Write a sequence for this structure.
């Protein structure tokens, strides 16, 4: 007998199934599941019909009404441990916005208030709220929910969300006061670049609320002129710049002005942003001039929580930064974002926390406060509420820290929408960043509803641009109106990645029009299949791109874009087949075949060279399946390995090449090259930043440069998940959990036993229950592999190289397999000046010695040697035109090294 451990009721994005929610449960089990609905009228029981054979069902009862009911599931007569409250959800609300009659400056916050008399016995009540901006609602001074930054950021002109809060416990009979504090939030933010700044949606915030008394009176109170508005303690608020409050201020009330109704959609299925965790500081330091420096020891998105003692009129200021630079807060990377909270205090003790802003920071500095008056300080981690589903761990501390950093960057950037970074004057839903990161995010957290909601906005923005997907969603800047590869491809690749992770066909159904429209927009833009015109961001931030021109990557823009045109068209074909849309599938198949041929004709030579001879180009072509046959793919792979080797196993890829490079190397059997690249600690590499004390994933490979200075580029964030897309590879190929079928109904177990690791493993809480895979070395010859599979799931263990190929079902399984340990250390053949640079590079010790010697002899020579790809080049080639002394010293250094190592 298997009990139901967990089940959920899904009302769909924007309450599309509002009165007939879908039911999902785990673990999956072929036996009958009975739903029990308890209403005032009694208990109704019905057997559930599985949707598509999965542990998911459509609503079996009559439409839900407004009165709450309770739902439980039963299997073999045993009820689930929990019951869930359900009630019909209204999908749309014509929200009557009100505003301040006389705002004195742009984006002026205000408080709206209404007194409401409740008759005894009026019973249950809900308060529905939305805002052009962000709000905090209270009833009789108590918060109606713990949600912050509500109702979140959506593409406001097309989509605004509201939420119903149960306020029954907050109301009393007699007079009650509803108050809503409103700030402009994202609605009035000054989005933009350089001089192109300003309000994108509106100049002033607005709010709409509706109290429903569900008892006998049935009274409804909505925002209108009978509400009062006033300026409360909050005098200024901005997402980028912070919040200013005068805690002494009392509002002057005036009648509200109606701003007209706006259509709002029910946010019931969309995760709310909440305070998630409190962090005690790693250190609190008093600086010589009295400033107080707080180090959280962890880069986060959120704010400070302070308890202070003050005298009336004291002004406390908190500034925030991710890094220190020369002992001071590094504010330059924040660009325009002031990230500053201010409070004017009353006498006595105050608790200070901002509410309508957030900051990306590890360090904060307080002024206006004596150390002894700071009673308490902590960091408050704020992000969308997501259920953690995936874990990963190994014996390699740096790799573990990298993974931890990627998790923290997910947490810091899943704040209402998937953002690029949480700190500077940006925090936008860059489509390319989440496009490469979705597979990782969908393993770490249940992001179905979070990204499902964002995809609604993507489709709406796309529709406004006639099929073209903007580079940010929401798109407050509207600066790019032609298709941009890899960024716009989010329209196809994000829904597909969600489908692969959750097996949820609904996301494909919902997004199908958007997916088709994107592929058609690209087809119109480049009908012959070669996408070599228009604005492109390319292999963004590859390490060769100049600090001030991150789009000038090494890889040809047309090659990258055409590869993505193929990727999306071929993925669309698969999606269409899943949905049984045969005509659409045929069209997409024809288009992807056309693009593939065009790609091969334009960019690929007959012996497997790409015209853009870069690691990113080969990696993408291999993983996307652009090679005409296996032979050519092998040749491309050999060249890829050669390029990685000659770069000294350092990264040469940007946002696009990085997610696929390790997969590409494995696909062509270059396991050792992959391992050396993955475990590299010199810059640029994944682990370099870990050695530099990073606590989140960086935007640039060298956001902090090896000389300890912060990268001077205009874009230098220390909290960007894009390059962290490698975690998906870690989960699938280092631990070995991959979906063999969408939603992990069948799991592919195919770990690579890295030479540098003693053990590795991962756990994933799938819709069917937990999957666990772990391996560890028994001795120098053997590895023990364990696999745990839940009910109704099967796994394919596919390790032919280790003599193990197996199909297994539910339960725990273990094997001991052959996995002889080899050394990855390659020793260069040292032959004086005739030693090859490429060979030296493979030998970390020899390479360091040579570079150190060169730096002492002629620094610019060392730099050139570093930059030299070195295929076929010897040391002699590099010093041919140098003085005899330099040549002799270098030859001597090599001899000394040879003697030392002999
Ligand atoms: C963002 C990136 C984004 C890029 C594209 C940057 O400023 O931070 O992550 O994808 O712009 O232009």
């Amino acid at each position: 007998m298997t009990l139901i451990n967990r089940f959920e009721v899904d009302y769909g994005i924007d309450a599309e199934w509002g009165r007939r929610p879908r039911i999902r449960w785990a673990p999956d089990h072929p036996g009958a599941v009975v739903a029990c609905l308890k209403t005032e009228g009694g208990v109704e029981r019905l057997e559930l019909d599985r949707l598509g054979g999965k542990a998911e069902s459509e609503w079996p009862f009559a439409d839900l009404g407004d009165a709450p009911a309770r739902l439980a599931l039963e299997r073999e007569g045993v009820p689930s441990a929990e019951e869930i409250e359900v009630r019909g959800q209204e999908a749309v609300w014509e929200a009557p916005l009100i505003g301040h009659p006389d705002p004195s400056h742009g984006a002026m916050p205000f408080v709206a208030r209404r007194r409401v008399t409740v008759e005894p016995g009026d019973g249950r009540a809900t308060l529905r709220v939305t805002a052009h901006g962000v709000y905090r609602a209270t009833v009789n001074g108590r918060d109606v929910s713990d949600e912050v930054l509500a109702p979140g950021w959506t593409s406001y002109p097309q989509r605004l969300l509201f939420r119903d809060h149960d306020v029954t416990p907050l109301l009393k009979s007699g007079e009650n006061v509803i108050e809503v504090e409103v700030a402009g939030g994202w609605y009035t933010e000054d989005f933009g670049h350089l001089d192109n700044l300003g309000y994108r949606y509106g100049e002033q915030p607005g709010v709409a609320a509706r109290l429903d008394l569900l008892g006998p009176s049935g009274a409804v109170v909505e925002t209108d002129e009978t509400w009062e508005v006033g300026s409360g303690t909050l005098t200024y608020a901005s997402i980028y710049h912070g919040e200013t409050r005068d805690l002494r201020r009392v509002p002057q009330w005036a009648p509200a002005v109606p701003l007209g109704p706006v259509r709002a959609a029910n946010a019931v299925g969309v995760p709310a942003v909440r305070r998630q965790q409190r962090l005690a500081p790693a250190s609190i330091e008093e600086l010589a001039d009295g400033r107080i420096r707080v180090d959280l020891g962890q880069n986060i998105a959120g704010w400070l929580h302070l308890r202070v003692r003050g005298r009336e009129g004291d002004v406390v200021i908190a500034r925030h930064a991710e890094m220190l630079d020369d002992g001071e807060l590094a504010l330059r990377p924040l660009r325009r974002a002031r990230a500053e909270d201010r409070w004017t205090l009353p006498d006595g003790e105050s608790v200070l926390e901002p509410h309508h802003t957030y900051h990306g920071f590890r360090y904060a500095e307080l002024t206006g406060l004596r150390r002894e008056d700071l009673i308490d300080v902590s960091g408050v981690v704020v992000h969308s509420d997501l259920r953690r589903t995936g874990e990963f761990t190994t014996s390699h501390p740096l790799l573990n820290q990298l993974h931890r950093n990627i998790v923290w960057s997910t947490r810091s950037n899943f704040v209402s929408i998937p953002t690029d970074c949480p700190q500077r004057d940006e925090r936008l839903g860059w489509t390319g960043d989440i496009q490469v990161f979705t597979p990782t995010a969908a393993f770490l957290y249940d992001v179905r509803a979070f990204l499902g909601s964002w995809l609604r906005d993507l489709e709406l923005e796309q529709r406004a641009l006639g099929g073209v997907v903007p580079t940010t969603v929401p798109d407050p800047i509207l600066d790019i109106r032609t298709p941009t590869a890899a960024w716009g491809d989010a329209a196809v690749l994000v829904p597909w990645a969600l489908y692969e992770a959750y097996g949820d066909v609904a996301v494909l159904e919902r997004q199908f029009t958007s997916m088709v429209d994107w592929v058609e927009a690209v087809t119109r833009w480049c009908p012959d299949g070669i996408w070599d015109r228009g604005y492109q961001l390319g292999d963004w931030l590859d390490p060769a791109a100049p600090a001030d021109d991150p789009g000038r990557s090494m890889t040809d823009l047309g090659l990258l874009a055409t590869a993505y045109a193929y990727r999306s068209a071929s993925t669309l074909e698969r999606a269409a087949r899943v949905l049984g849309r045969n005509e659409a599938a045929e069209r997409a198949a024809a288009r992807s075949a056309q693009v593939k041929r065009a790609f091969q004709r334009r960019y690929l030579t007959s012996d497997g060279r790409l015209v853009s001879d870069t690691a990113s180009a080969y990696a993408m072509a291999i993983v996307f399946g652009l090679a005409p046959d296996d032979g050519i793919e092998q040749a491309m792979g050999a060249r890829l390995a050669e390029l990685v080797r000659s770069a000294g196993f350092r990264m040469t890829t940007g946002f696009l090449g990085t997610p696929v490079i390790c997969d590409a190397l494995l696909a062509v059997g270059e396991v050792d090259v992959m391992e050396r690249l993955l475990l590299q600690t010199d810059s640029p590499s994944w682990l370099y930043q870990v050695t530099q004390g990073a606590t989140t994933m960086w935007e640039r490979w060298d956001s902090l440069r090896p000389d300890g200075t912060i990268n001077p580029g205009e874009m230098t964030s220390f909290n960007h998940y894009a390059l962290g897309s490698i975690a998906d590879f870690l989960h699938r190929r280092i631990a070995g959990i991959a979906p063999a079928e969408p939603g992990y109904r069948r799991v592919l177990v195919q770990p690579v036993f890295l030479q540098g690791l003693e053990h590795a493993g991962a756990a994933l809480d799938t819709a069917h229950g937990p999957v666990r895979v772990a391996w560890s070395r028994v001795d120098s010859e053997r590895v023990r592999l364990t696999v745990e599979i839940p009910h109704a799931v099967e796994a394919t263990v596919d390790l032919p190289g280790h003599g193990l190929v197996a199909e297994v079902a539910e339960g725990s399984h273990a094997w001991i397999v052959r996995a002889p340990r080899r050394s990855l250390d390659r020793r260069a053949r040292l032959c004086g000046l005739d030693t090859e640079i490429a060979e030296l590079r493979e030998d970390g010790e020899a390479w360091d010695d040579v570079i150190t010697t060169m730096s002492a002899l002629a620094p610019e020579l060392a730099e050139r040697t570093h930059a030299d790809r070195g295929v076929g080049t010897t040391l002699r080639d590099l010093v041919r035109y140098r003085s005899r002394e330099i040549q002799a010293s270098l030859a001597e250094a090599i001899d000394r090294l040879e003697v030392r190592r002999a």
